[in-house]
Hints:
It is a single chain. This protein is α/β, with parallel strands linked by helices. Helices cover about 50% and strands about 20% of the residues. It has 14 helices and 16 strands. The strands form four sheets. The chain has a five-stranded parallel beta sheet, with helices on both faces. It has a four-stranded antiparallel beta sheet with strand order 6-13-8-11. It is elongated, with a radius of gyration of 23 Å. About 0% of the residues have low confidence.
Amino acid sequence: xxxxxxxxxxxxxxxxxxxxxxxxxxxxxxxxxxxxxxxxxxxxxxxxxxxxxxxxxxxxxxxxxxxxxxxxxxxxxxxxxxxxxxxxxxxxxxxxxxxxxxxxxxxxxxxxxxxxxxxxxxxxxxxxxxxxxxxxxxxxxxxxxxxxxxxxxxxxxxxxxxxxxxxxxxxxxxxxxxxxxxxxxxxxxxxxxxxxxxxxxxxxxxxxxxxxxxxxxxxxxxxxxxxxxxxxxxxxxxxxxxxxxxxxxxxxxxxxxxxxxxxxxxxxxxxxxxxxxxxxxxxxxxxxxxxxxxxxxxxxxxxxxxxxxxxxxxxxxxxxxxxxxxxxxxxxxxxxxxxxxxxxxxxxxxxx
Length: 352
């Protein structure tokens, strides 16, 4: 079996040489660069399996390295770990949102380094297993072998991003970069009311797309997208999707179908906000989450009180009161953020 090839980009000679020594002792092939520009040249030349990169460097810092590598299809999918001093940890959100996979805080010991490297390499292998599943699920989007091959190649070149719980994927008003496919996990989209409350407009789980309206309208995002739990997503760039939409009409028709279903859901949500009682609204939200989970009874729904309130369009205190009522009526059982539906029929009758 070939050795995994690791690239280190670090301007501090002592740190760089120490990392090289540790990785070579662990039987990795190591490529070293002492600045960002040289690091990009070596990455394009050798296409490593993993890149470790310092943030603060002269000429081109770590953020610039990550940005330029992400623009090249050959290097965009390479796992990327930032090396950061403790004082820089507040800036790590920027790096993670740019597409970094992880970060190590200096100083770190030998085992911290090796564990991070091994963990990220293993995760890359596991994420590649999602490709076949995702391609099967989006086969209906293409309808032709040539289209399938084109999309298969495009997805294979994309990096699967690991998103932490509560990490923002994009904000309302951000420019459109592409559309997103949930490989694993759960993502919500929401808008903020003038008084700062969330109004949730969508929940997306495995094999579901979000961000389509902004792509088709070529306008900034009209809502914020945030991970509800640790998730894995794939971003399909705007330029790629525009090319596929122009070449394969079936993709456009399928996306219109998705948008139509989402529109019907939102119209129903508006009607509920206008006419349903708070009990009826919360019952409908629980049933909607039940259907989305596609699990068998008894169902355990994992959702926070705040997210329930955002979905139902009511205050969190009201949600707590109604959930307590449902519990006393033996409709649900509640433990923290877990809700078990005990009597689905009563919820459905309440909704109707």
